[in-house]
Amino acid sequence: MKPWMRWIVATLILALIFHLATVMAIPRLAMKTAHQRILERAGSRLNTLLHSPRVTVDSRDVVKPSPDLLYSLCVYDVSEKPLRITAPVPDTYWSLSFYQTNTDNFYVLNDRQAKTNPVEIVLVGPKMEVPNVTNAELVVAPTEKGIFLLRSLIMDEDKLGDLIKIQKKARCKSF
Amino acid sequence: MKLILKILICLLVALVLGIGSALLLIKFSPIDKSRVVNGPWRTSLSIGSPQAGIYLRAWVALNGLFALNKTETVYFSADTDEDGQSLRSGCNYRVEGRDMAARWWSITVYGADNYLIPNEAMRNAFNDQDVAKNADGRYTISVSSTPKRGNWLPSGNQDQLYLTLRLYNPLPEVYHKPAELELPQIIKEACR
Q1: What is the four-CA torsion angle of A53, A59, A63, A69, rounded to 10 degrees?
Q2: Is the ipTM of this complex over 0.90?
Q3: Which CATH architecture has domain B35-191?
Q4: Which residue in A7, A22, A38 has the most chain B C-beta atoms within 10 A of its own C-beta, making it the best mutation to test that interface?
Q5: Nearest Cβ partner of A17 from B18, B57, B127?
Q6: Which one of A46, B42, B93, B191 is most buried, by most CB atoms within 10 A?
Q7: Number of alpha carbons in the 13 Å side-chain half-sphere of residue B14
C-alpha cells in the first residue's frame, strides 16, 4: 500500500468511528438535556411529578410539544428505592409512559387499558430486589434513571379546568 | 511538523465526514426500513419501539423526543408541499382533508427550531373538534403569515415550517396500511 493510501484509509476509518459515535450519542445527549431542563423546573427534585402548564409558544423544554396535551413529568432514579406512581384516569385519551436513558419507551398504559382508577404502579430498578407489592402493578426499569410522562388530551376546552384538577392529583414518589 | 499537519488534516476531514454523514443519514434516514411515505407526509412505525434502529432513534431524539408507539399515537410529519418544495412562511398553503381513522387527530405547525410559532391569534394547531368543517366533513386549513378567513394557522416568519399530524389511538388500518391512507393534501398557493 502506498503511503497516501494509508492516510486515506486511516481517515475513512476515523470518519466511520466519528459517524457511529455521533449517531449513538444523540439520544443520550437529548435525554440528558431534557433531564436537566425538567429538573430545573422541578427545583432539582428527583422523583417528583412536575405538572407542566398548558403548552404555549413559550414551551421550549422538549422539541415539537403538542398543544393538544397536558403533560406531567417526573425525572426518576430507582437506584436505591422503588418509585410509586398514583394517577387518576380522566375521561379522555390519557397515557402514562416510562422512558429509559437511551430514549426507549419501555412501558406505556392508556386510559382504555387501565384496570383501576386511579392507576397504581410500582417501578423498581434493574438490580433491585422485587418488593412485595399489593394493589399496584409492578414494572421493572431497564435503567436506573429515566423519565416518567403523563399525557392527558384536551378534547374539550370547556373541561380543561376539570382535567387540570385530575392531572394535579397524580403523584410520583420514592418509598 | 509535516507529520503533525498531516494528522491534523486527517482528523479534521474525518470529523467533518463522520459527523456530517451521520447528521445527513439521520435527517433522511434511508436506512430505516419501517419508514413510510404518503404524499408529503412521512412517518415510521418503529417510532417509540425497541425495534427502532440507531438512526431512527437519533432522529426521534432530535425531532420528537418522548414519542409514543404506533398504537398510542401515529405521528406524520411534513416539511414539503405536494410538489416536494420546502414549506416556508414566504408561501401560503392550503391543507385540505377529511376526518381520519383515529380516536382524535390534530395538525400542528412548527417553526424552523421545532417549537411553536408565536402569533397574535394564539393558534398553533387545529384538531378534530375545533376545525371548521364543510357539510361533507371536509376541511381546509390556511397556513400563511397573514390572516385568512376560516381555519387560519399563522406561519410567522420562518425559513422552514414543519407540519405534524397526530393520530391518537389510531384504528389498525392506520398502522397496517399507512402509505394508502387518505391524508390531508398540502397545496402551495401564492409565494412572495
Answers
A1: 30
A2: no
A3: Sandwich (2.60)
A4: A22
A5: B18
A6: B93
A7: 20
